[in-house]
Amino acid sequence: MSIQNRIIKVQKRNRALVTFNEGRITHAILRAAESIGGLQQDYLPGVNDKLFDAYAFDEKVAEFLADNVVICLNSDPHHLIANFPPTIEDIQDLVIHVLRSYGFQNTADSYECYRWSRHWTREGAITDTQFVGNGFPRKRMEHILDWNRQHGCDTVAGLNEIVRTGRLKPLVEESLDAYEASLDEAAAKVMARLNAGDNIRMMWVSGPSSSGKTTTTVKLTERLKRHGLKFHMLNLDDYFWALIEHPTDWINDRNFETPEALDIQLLNRHLKELLDGKTIEKPIYSFKEGRRIGTKPVKLESDQVLLLDCLHGFYPPITEGIDATTQFRVYIETLNVLLEGDGSRKRLTKFTDIRLIRRMLRDLRHRNHSPLSTLLHWHYVRWGELFSIIPLMGLADHVVNGGLPFDLPVLKPFLLDAGHFPRTEDLAQYSGFLDAQIRFGRVKSLLESVEGLTQDQIAALIPGDAVIREFIGGSTVKIPHNE
After folding, report:
1. pLDDT surpasses 70 at 212
2. Do residues 22 and 74 make contact, with C-beta atoms less than 8 angstroms apart?
3. CA 347, CA 40: separation in Å to the nearest integer?
4. Which residues does 326 contact at the CB level (< 8 Å), separation at least 6?
C-alpha cells in the first residue's frame, strides 16, 4: 500500500548514517518466516486471517508488515530530525512489535532469536560455528524426528493411537533410556576433559524455564560423584535484586526472567573469588520479604566443583574473566519433535508450549501462582530465553533433550482434566493481550487433541525419577539443599 515516509537515514551500530531502505525490512521478515516454513505457520483465524485473505503471497504480507514498521518509525517525531535518525536497533524493535501485534508470534520468535544470535557473535561471546540462527537446531531435530517416526510418535495422531492401544510402556522405557544415555555421554565428556588435563572447577546446567534442569543436574552429578568428583551447589536466586527494584507492569506483574534481575557484578566477583579459594559472604534472599536479609560465608574447597543450575548460566557477563577451560556447560531443552494432528499440515507443536504447561503445574503446586498468572507472565519468559539463553546454546559442551514423547498424555490430566487450565472467560479482562490470547488458544487446542492417561496409568508407567515428575509430583529424585 502507499504510505507516507519521511525517514531518510538510518544510524548503523558504528554510528555511520546510511540511506533508509524499506526493502531490507521486508527481506528480513521473509527470511525469518522462511526459516520456520513460511508465514502460514502463523495463520490465525480471527487474528490475522483477513491479512492473508487480502494478500495471497508471503511477499505481499511481508511488505504490508514492513509498511507498518515504517508507519511506526514516522510516528516518532525525533526520527524526523536530521541528527536523530532511527538506529538499526530501533528498527529491529519495531519489526518485532509489528509482528507480534499482528499475531506473527513464531516469525517474531525466529527473527528475535536470530537477531540476538548475531548480537552475541558481534560481541565475541560465540563463534560462527556456535551460531544457532533461529534457535532450532536442525540436525538435532531431524535426528529426534526420525527416532519418533520409527516409534510411531512423530505426530499427535500417532501418539494418541499408542495411548489408546495400550502400547505406551515400551515408548516410555525406550525414551527414558535415550535420556539416561545422554547423561552418560555428558558425564563421559566431563571425565574426558579432566583426564586430558582441564581443571574443571565449575559446571553449569542451563536452559529455558521448565526444561528439566533440576532433575538433570541431580542425575548428572550422581554419575560424576561415582567417579570421585565433589560438588558445591550455589543458589543463584540469592543474587536477585530487591523486589522494590523490579517495577510492576500494567497487569501488576514483574519481570524476573531477564539476567539483569540478578546482581551480575556481585555474582561475577563472587565466582572469581570462590575459584581463587577465597571465602565470600553470599547473600541470603527472602522471597517472602522480597529482599536480602543477610549473608552467609561460603568457601569452595580445592577438591570441589562449583555446581550452578541457572536459567542464564551461559550469559557472558556472569562468567566474564573466568577461563572457559575451567567450565563445563550443559544445555537442556524440551526438544521432542512432534507434528500437530496427523502431520499433514507440517506444523510442529511448540517446545515453549510444553514448558509453559510444565511451569503452570509447577507454579500451581509450589509457588501458589495460578495457571492464568503463569500464562500472562510467559511473554517475559519468552523474551528472556530469546535474548540470553537460546542464542547461546552453541556454547554448550553437551545438549540434553529434556522433552519426551509421553509428556503431553501425562501432563493433560493434571491441568486440563483437573480443571486447572484457564477458562476463556478468565482472559476476558485481558482481551487486548494478544500474546496471552494466542498461547491460550494454541495450548488449549493442543491439550484437547491429546489422548490423556489416567492417574492409575501414570502411577504404573512413569518412574519416580523421570523428568516429568518435577512438574506433576511424585519425584523420587532427592533435590540437594541449595547453599
Report:
1. yes
2. no
3. 10
4. 198, 199, 200, 201, 202, 275
Instruction: Report how far residue 313's alpha carbon sits from residue 309's, in angstroms, rounded to the nearest whole number.
Output: 7
Could you give the 3-state DSSP secondary structure of residue 107? Answer: helix
Q: Taking a C-beta distance cutoff of 8 angstroms, is the pair 399, 140 a contact? A: yes
Scan for cell 517474531, then name that residue.
108
Structural domains for the chain: 9-128 (no CATH), 137-472 (3.40.50.300)
Per residue in 51-69, pLDDT tens? 999 998 999 999 999 999 9
| pLDDT score recorded for residue 1 | 61
pLDDT, tens digit (0-9, with 9 covering 90-100), for 101-110? 999 999 999 9
The H-assigned helical ranges of 196-286 are 213-225, 264-275
Q: Does residue 218 contact residue 480 with C-beta atoms inside 8 Å?
A: yes
Identify any residues that bridge with 330 across adjacent strands, giving them in sequence order: 205, 398
Residues 6 or more apart in contact with residue 329 via CB below 8 angstroms: 203, 204, 206, 313, 314, 395, 396, 397, 398
pLDDT digits (tens, 9 = 90+) for 279-307: 999 999 998 899 999 999 999 999 999 99
Report which of 346, 367, 361 is spatially closest to residue 407, judged by C-alpha positions: 361
Q: What is the CA radius of gyration of the chain?
A: 23
Q: What angle do CA 211, 216, 217 make, to 5 degrees?
A: 115
**What's the grid cell of residue 87?**
538506529
Tell me how far apart the alpha carbons of residues 411 and 453 are, in angstroms, rounded to a whole number. 9
Place of cell 488449549: 444
Q: What is the average pLDDT value for the chain, to the nearest integer?
A: 95
The Cα–Cα gap between 201 and 231 comes to 9
326, burial (CB in 10 Å: exposed 0-12, middle 13-18, buried 19+): middle
Distance, CA of 305 to CA of 328 (rounded, Å)? 10
DSSP type of residue 278: -
Q: What share of the chain is helix, strand, coil (3-state, %, to 5)?
A: 55, 10, 35
- What cell was used for 471? 512438574
Nearest to 303 by CA among 220, 200, 205, 203: 200
477 alpha-carbon distance from chain centroid: 24
Nine-digit cell string for 466: 523421570
Q: Judge contact between 152 and 162, C-beta under 8 A.
A: yes
Could you tell me the end-to-end alpha-carbon distance of the chain, in angstroms, rounded to an integer? 60
Helix 168-195, helix 213-225: angle, nearest 10: 50
